[in-house]
Design brief:
Layout lengths: L4 E5 L3 H14 L9 E6 L1 H10 L7 E5 L15 H7 L1 E5 L2 E7 L4 E6 L2 E6 L5 E7 L2 E9 L1 E5 L7 H4 L11 E7 L10 E4 L4 E6 L6 E5 L2 E3 L2 E8 L5 E5 L5 H8 L3
Parallel strand pairs: 1-2, 2-3, 3-17
Antiparallel strand pairs: 4-17, 5-6, 5-16, 7-10, 7-14, 8-9, 8-13, 10-11, 11-12, 13-16, 14-15
């Protein structure tokens, strides 16, 4: 039993030490030649690895060398090949963001977790929200708002008191951050195929930035987001520790 493994690691001392140890034991191939890619780091590095390898056929198996490690498996040196063969696969579609800036430039990015709009000045942002071409909220005064996937629902969304979404639910969560008006607006659950548009109101006075998995665009005037079903991220988890179980367990902590 063997597999061609490509190891990738974050720049942290812990991850680099793990990389050296694992390559010594299991060898290393280029990601393009791999049957499986093993990412060593935390959730941030896992997102980076998924973005960088999305065009490759190999699934990604993460091992936690960071802090939270929601998308990662436990770091263990022994028995890695057996774990890879036994691993269960989850498939995630990212969100596609198209942002227009005040200077007229357009920016596109993909987000596995969420696309967020954040105020970039001392005053609260003012956002108009449309879904599938229909204005649903004329004005949201807030520190920001985000649209997240089920995989990202336990990240920034959860910190903003948004709902945790089951994997495979075909639902996106639209969540406000520190909403001032409407004061008690808590967000919305939307079908996965919805197209969500944010228009920034009074952008010169109340500048707003957009982020797609930490890829930042400043001075946006509008942001349109949809699920990109043509892209499929394949993530491997140890049996009994997949995203479905993690999402359920997170709600009973």
């Amino acid at each position: 039993m063997s597999r061609n493994i490509a190891f990738v690691a974050s720049d942290t001392e812990v991850a680099q030490a793990a990389l050296t140890e694992l390559v010594t034991l299991y060898g290393n191939v280029a990601p393009i030649d791999a049957d499986v890619i093993v990412a060593l780091g935390g959730d941030g590095f896992m997102l980076q690895a998924l973005h960088e390898t999305q065009a490759l056929p190999a699934p990604v198996y993460g091992m936690n060398c960071g802090t939270v490690g929601f998308l990662m498996n436990e770091y263990l040196v022994d028995g890695l090949v057996e774990r890879l063969f036994a691993a269960e696969e989850e498939v995630i579609n990212p969100l596609a963001m198209r942002a227009e800036c005040r200077d007229g430039s357009m920016h596109e990015a993909l987000a596995i977790n969420e696309v967020s709009l954040l105020r970039a000045g001392p005053q609260a942002a003012k956002l108009q929200i449309s879904v599938d071409g229909r204005v649903r909220l004329e004005e949201l005064v807030c520190d920001g708002a985000l649209l997240c996937t089920p995989a990202g629902s336990t990240a920034y969304n959860y910190s903003a008191h948004g709902p945790i979404l089951p994997i495979g639910s075909d639902v996106l969560a639209l969540t406000a951050m520190s909403a001032f008006r409407p004061r008690r607006w808590r967000g919305a659950l939307l079908p996965k195929n919805a197209v969500v548009r944010f228009d920034v109101l009074q952008g010169e006075k109340r500048p707003v930035m957009a982020e797609a998995d930490s890829r930042s665009v400043r001075d946006v005037v509008s942001v349109e987001i949809h699920s990109e079903d043509s892209i499929k991220h394949r993530i491997l988890f140890d049996p009994g520790h997949g995203l479905e179980e993690r999402l359920i367990r997170e709600q009973f902590v």
